[in-house]
Specification:
The protein contains three helices and no strands. It has a single domain, classed as Methane Monooxygenase Hydroxylase, Chain G, domain 1. Helix content is 87%, strand content 0%. Helix 1 runs antiparallel to helix 2 and helix 2 packs antiparallel against helix 3.
Length: 89
């Protein structure tokens, strides 16, 4: 347990940030699963809509520091590539 006043405050801040980050990560994962499900069903239109939603969530998460911006870009790019390959097959 922290003893100093600064350490107590830091513990409170960390708890709030951890809770916020968990909510953001959960919503990003859920939206990514929607994209993958649409890809498995070979439904390009719904996959594109789900990707658009996921892109928005991922970019805001990267802005807030939950994900590194390169990680966000990589995940979005890979799913977009899978959607684009869906039409060629």
């Amino acid at each position: 347990m922290p003893i100093h006043r600064d350490a107590i405050k830091k513990t409170r801040q960390d708890a709030r940030k951890r809770e916020r980050n968990r909510k953001i990560i959960s919503s990003v994962r859920t939206s990514a699963k929607k994209v993958i499900k649409a890809l498995e069903e070979k439904n390009k239109e719904s996959a594109q809509l789900a990707l658009k939603e996921m892109t928005s969530l991922m970019d805001s998460a990267a802005t807030k520091g939950v994900f590194h911006h390169n990680t966000a870009g990589r995940k979005i790019s890979r799913l977009a590539l899978r959607i684009n390959h869906l039409s060629t097959k």
